[in-house]
Amino acid sequence: MNYPTTSTLLSWMIFTPLIGVGCIGLLLALKRLLGLGKNEMDNAARGVTLIFSAIPLILGFMLWRGFDPSNTGLQFVHHFVWIRAFNIEYFMGADGLSVTMVMLTVLISFIGVIASMPWGIAKDDDHHFSRKAVPGYMALILLLEAGMIGVFCAMDFFLFYVFWEVMLLPMYFLIGIWGGPRKEYAAIKFFLYTLAGSVLMLLAMIAIYLSSNPTTLVDGTYAAHTFNLIKLADPAIFAPAGTILGFAFSKVVFIGLFIAFAIKIPMFPFHTWLPDAHVEAPTPVSVILAGVLLKMGVYGILRINYSLLPDAAVWASTGIAIFGTINIVYAAFVCMAQKDLKKLIAYSSVSHMGFCLLGMAAFTPQGITGAVYQMFTHGIVSPALFLVAGVVYDRAHHRQIEGFGGLAKQMPEYTGIMGLAFMASLGLPGLCGFISEALCFIGAFPVFQVLTIISAISVVITAAYYLWTIQRMFLGNLNEKYAKLPDINWRERITLYPLCAIILVLGVYPMPILSLMNKTLHELIAPMASMM
Amino acid sequence: MSNLESLGHIVPELILGGMAVLIFLVAAAARKHMVWRTWLFPALTVAGLVAAIGHLCYHSATLSSQGAIFSGLLASDAFAVYFRILVITAVLVCVFISIGSSSLSISRSGEYHGLLLVMAMGMCFLAGANNLLMIYISLETVSLCSYLLTGWDHKRIRSHEAGLKYVLFGGVASGIMLFGFSIMYGLFGSLNLQDISVALNSNAICFSSVHNSALLLSLVFILGGMGYKIAAVPFHMWCPDVYEGAPTPITALLSVGPKAVGFALIIRFFYSLFIAPVTCSHSLETVTTNIPWLLILAVLSISSMILGNFAALVQNNLKRMLAYSSIAHAGYTLMGVIAGGQRGLEAVAIYLGIYLLMNMGAFSVVSIVARTTGSEDINVFRGLGKRMPVMGLMMTIFLVSLTGLPPTAGFIGKFYLFSALLETGGYWYWILAVIGVLNSVVALYYYARVMKAMYFEKPEGEIIVHEANTLPAAAVALVLGVLTLFFGIFWQPLADAASWSAAIFH
Questions:
Q1: pLDDT above 70 (res A179)
Q2: Which of A15, A200, A203 has the most B C-beta neighbours within 10 Å, making it the best mutation to test the interface with B?
Q3: pLDDT band at B66; cut points 50, 70, 90
Q4: Any alpha helices (H) in A281-340, and if so which ranges?
Q5: Is A85 on the interface with B (CB under 8 A)?
Q6: Does A464 contact chain B (CB < 8 Å)?
Q7: How many Å apart are CA B464 and CA B462, to the nearest integer?
Q8: A334 located within any domain
Q9: Distance between B397 CA and the closest CA of chain A, angstroms
Q10: What percent of chain A has pLDDT over 70?
C-alpha cells in the first residue's frame, strides 16, 4: 500500500500548537511596541495557549467522528517526500491505535493547560509555577503537545524519531524551571535516561533502514532503503537476517528498541527517573507526563517492535511478561512505603504500566486490547490522581500523607473525587480501570498462568495502599492546621469533572474506545499469534 | 596541465593572498589612529573572502573537473572546493565576531585581518595539497598565523601563554611530521601522494617486514602532525590552554577551520595512499593484518571521544569546556573517516559543515557574554536566559545541536556518521558506533549544564555588564542559529553538496 495523501487534518493538529508558539514569540518580540506589562503579557500568553490547545481538541473530535473503525489501514494520511537523499518521507497517518492515543493526547494537554492557569491560586502565592515566566512555560507546553501528537501519527521511522526527541527538551525545561526543590536533579535525570534509550533506538533505526530491500517512495521514485514503517512491516521489504556483534540481527535490534521504549514506560529496572520527575514537576506537567508520555513507550513497542520484528517479539514475550509482573508487584510494594502522596501516585503509575506489558506479551486479542485500553484508562485516571494531589499541595504546600487527617469533613467534594479516582485506579468494577485490568488478565492467563495469578493477587496490595491512604488523609480527626482549607474551586472542577465523567462512562460502556482499536490491534498481533 | 594554466585554479587563493598584501601595505602606510581603520580593514577582508567564495561557487564545475595541477603539487577537485568554501566561510564568520571584540586593538587591526586572510589562503592550499612538501608548507602557513593570532591579546597574560604553548607544541608536532615525511620519501622516492600510492600498492605483496615497520613508523609520525591539527587524543594537550587563552573569535576559528582542513588532509592522505587506485578491501578486520591505519584511527577516535567528553564534564570555563567538546567532536568525525566510502566521507563533509554552524555559533555567544561581562566562567552565564533572552535561546539551539538532538543540524551530522558506520558494517564498526552514541549521552550532561546555568540558576554575586559593540556578533549568532535549525529540518542542499564533494574518493 502506498498511501497517498488523503487529508491534512493530522498535520494541522500537530502544527496548530506550533503556530501558538510562534504567536507567543511574536507577542514577546512586540511586547514593548504594544506596551504590554508583565500581567498583560502573561494573560495574553495564557489566552493564546488556551486557544491553540483547544483547536487540536476540536480537530481531535473531528478525527474521531471521521475515523472508520472497520477499515484496518491508515486513514487521514498526509504523505510526501521530505529528504530524498535518505528516502525520508513526511508520512502522517492514523490507525485505531494512533487515533486512541491522539485523542488522549489532545484531551490531556488541554486539561494540562487549564490546570496551568492561576485561577483560584492564593494571590500572595507569587512563587506558584503558574505565575513564573508564563510565556516560556506556555510555549513549552505547546511544543510538548506538538511533539506528542507527532509521535503518535508519524508513520516514517525517522519522523517518529525526530518527534520522539523533540519532546525531551520542553520536558527538561518544564521540570527544571518550574519544578520543586530538587528540580535540577530530576530534570537532568529524566533527560539522561531518555536520551540513553533513544541513542540505542537511533542505531537500531539505522540498522533497520540499511537492511531494508528496495521499494518506491510515495511519488513512485526508486528507493534503495526505506524508513516507511508500513512498508517495513512487510516481510518482502524488511526481513531481518544476519548478525550484529555475533547475535541474531532481529534480537539485537529488538532489544535496542525495547530498552529505549522501556525507559519511557518506565519498566523495572529503568523506572527510577519517574518518581523523581513526578515529585519535582509542577502538577500540569505531571499530568501530561503520566497521562501521555508514559504511553509512548508502550505505543513504540507496539508500533515498531511488534510490527517490524514479530519473530523477535515472540522470542521476547516471556521476558516482557516477567518484567510486567515485576513492575506490577514491585511497584505496588514500593507504594505501600511512600509518605509523599505524589510519589505514591508515581509508583502506582509504574505498577499500572506493568499491566500493559503483561497484557501485550500474550498475543491474545483480549490481552492486546486490554493493554491498549489500560493505556487509555491510565491516561485518564493518573492525570486525575495528579490533579487531586495538586489540589492539596496548592493549599497545604506539602504532600505528606501523614500530615493530613479528617479532610473528608473539611473538603467533602474533594474527598469524593479523590475516592473515585483512587477506586478507578485500584480497579473497582464499574470504573474504567477494572475493564482494562480484567482484559489484561483474561488475555494473559492462557499463556502466562503463574505470572497472571501473581499479578492478580497483587491487586490486593494496590487496594491496600489506596485505602490506607484514604484512611490516613480523609478519615479520623481533622488536623487543626487545616481546619480552614477551602474545598476545590472552579478551575479544579473544570479539569477534574470531565475526567471523572470519562472514568464512569468508560467503566460501564467501553465500546467507544474498544471499537476504535479492535480491528487494528487484532491485525497487529496476527503474525505473532500464528507463531506462538 | 602547465603551470600557467594551473594558475586559473588557484584564483581564490590569489584573491586572498593579494588582499592580504594590500591590507598589510595600507596598514603600514596609514597613520596609527585614523578613524577609518575600524571599518576599512574588516570591509576589505570581507570583500576578499566573499570574492573568493563567490569564485569558488561560480566556477565550481571547472574547479572540480581537474585532477592534479602544478605538476601534481595540488589537487583541484570537488573535495578541495567544498573544504575551501568551508574554511573561507569560517574565516568570514570569525571576522564578523571580531568586530567590537575588546581583545583586538584598533591600532593593529590591519595586521590582524591580513593574518586572517593569509591563514585562509593557507587552509585553502592545505585542502588541495597533494604532495608531502605542499602539505608541509601550507600546514606551516596555517600554523604560523594561528600562533600569532593566539597571542594577539597582549594585555592578557593567558593569551601570551597560550601563544607560546601553541608554538612549542606546534613546532614539535610539525617536526615529527616532517620526520615521518622524510622516512616516507626514503621508502618510495617520491613526495607525490599518487606516486607513493602506486609504489606502495605494487610492492604490497613483496613488502618486507622491515619496510613495513618503517612505513608504519612514518605513518604514526605523520599522524602525529595531523592529529595535532584536528586535536585528537593523544595530540590534544595544547587544545584546552590555547582555546582558553586565545581571543574568543580566534578560538572560534581554530576550533573549526584548521580542524576541517586537518580532516581534509587526513582523508586525502590516507585514501590516496591506501584505497586508490588499486583497491584493497578496506575494513578494520582485513587492514589490521597489513598496515593498521584504520585501527590506529579507530583508537584515536575512541580515545578522543571518551577523554574529550569526560574532561569537559568538570570544566567551569566555557571556552575550556568547548575545547574539550571539540576534542570529542574530532573523535566523532573520525568515525566517518574510518567508515570510509562515499557515505563515510560524505558524513565527514556534512558533519564539518554543520560543526561550523553550531560551534562558531556557540563561540559567538560566548564572545558576546565575555565582552559584556569580562569573563567566560559558567557563573556569568547564570541567568543569561533572562538577561539576554535571544542570545540565551540561540545558545540553547547551539548546545542542543552539539549534543546531537533533533530538530537541529547536529543531529543530522550524527545521523550521517552513524549510518555511514553501520553501512560499512562489521563487528568493530558496531562497537565504535555504540561507543559513539553512548558518548553523546555523556556529552548531554555538560551541554545541559550550561542550559541549566542559563535558565535554572541565579548568578553568584552581582554581574557587572559593560557596554560593548555586540551587534555584529549577535547577528552572526542569529544567522547561524537559524541555519542550524533550518538544516535540522531540511538538509537536502547540504547533503547534495557533501555527496558531490565526496564522490572523488570511491
A1: yes
A2: A203
A3: low
A4: 283-288, 294-300, 307-308, 310-336
A5: yes
A6: no
A7: 6
A8: yes
A9: 11
A10: 99
The structural domain count of chain A equals: 1
- Residue from A189, A195, A244 whose CB has the most chain B CBs within 10 Å, to mutate: A195
**Cβ count near A266 (within 10 Å):** 27
DSSP state of A289: I
- B490 and A83 within 8 Å at the Cβ level: the answer is yes
Q: What are the structural domain ranges in chain B?
A: 1-168+234-262, 286-506
pLDDT of residue B196: 84
Residues of B in Cβ contact (< 8 Å) with A195: 405, 440-441, 444
DSSP string, A66-119: H--TT--S-EEEEEEEEEGGGTEEEEEEE-HHHHHHHHHHHHHHHHHHHHTS-T
- Report the percentage of chain B scoring pLDDT > 70: 94
Q: What pLDDT is recorded for position B506?
A: 52
pLDDT score of B324:
95
Q: What is the pLDDT of residues A438-475, one digit of tens each?
A: 999 999 999 999 999 999 998 899 999 999 999 888 88
CB contact under 8 A, A191 and B492: no
> Which residues in B61-186 belong to E strands, given as ranges?
68-69, 74-75
The H-or-E segment that residue B220 falls in is helix B209-230
Q: How far apart are CA B115 and CA B95, in angstroms?
A: 11
**H or E element that contains B262:** helix B248-274
Nearest CA in chain B to A25: B390
Three-class secondary structure assignment of B414-436: HHHHHHHHHHHCCHHHHHHHHHH
Count interface pairs A-B at CB distance under 8 A: 83
Q: Quick check: is A483 in a domain?
A: yes
Burial class (CB in 10 A: 0-12, 13-18, 19+), B220: middle
Question: How far does the CA of residue A32 sit from the closest CA of chain B (Å)?
Answer: 14
CB contact under 8 A, B419 and A210: yes
For residue A498, give the amino acid letter: P
Q: pLDDT per residue over B166-196, tens digit each?
A: 999 999 999 999 999 999 998 888 899 888 8
pLDDT at B287 over 60: no
pLDDT tens sequence across B46-65: 999 999 999 999 988 888 87
Q: Give chain B's mean pLDDT.
A: 88
Whether A398 maps to a domain, the answer reads yes
Q: What percent of chain A has pLDDT over 90?
A: 59
Give Cβ neighbours of residue A465 (< 8 Å, ≥ 6 apart): A332, A335, A336, A338, A344, A348
Residues ≥6 apart with Cβ < 8 Å to A443: A359, A362, A364, A365, A366, A367, A368, A369, A370, A371
Give contacts of A176 with chain B, Cβ < 8 Å.
452, 455-456
Residue at A5 is within a domain = no
Using an 8 Å CB-CB cutoff, list chain B residues near A162. Answer: 406-407, 411
Q: CA B151, CA B245: separation in Å to the nearest integer? A: 8
Determine how many CB atoms are found less than 10 A away from the CB of residue B182. 13
pLDDT of residue A344: 92
Cβ–Cβ gap B422/A173 under 8 Å? no
pLDDT at B277 over 60: no
Q: Which domain holds residue A375?
A: 309-532
Min distance A335 CA to chain B CA atoms (Å): 31
CA dist A453 and B354 (Å) reads 55
Cis omega (within 30 of 0) for bond into A118: no
